[in-house]
User: What shape does this take?
Amino acid sequence: MKKNKWSLFTKFALGISFMVIFFGLLNALIVRNSVSSSLNNEFERRGYFISRALAEQSVAYMGKFWRIPSASGYHKNYSG
Assistant: This one.
């Protein structure tokens, strides 16, 4: 039976290649998780900002027709 003898260079080249691929994939997973969590937090903050702005605008719009005091107009005209 013939043995498969690989040279020392081939063994080192394969070992180094596998380690680079392994740590590259590990690094890619860590970066992906970090970026996705950061983006999720940013989207959540932007969503709250947009919903708050829309709510304030809708109250101001409804106040024109049904005389509902808006948050900003109520405090200006309040004499205490």
The chain is about 80% helix and 0% strand. The helical segments are 8-66, 71-77. The mean pLDDT is 82.
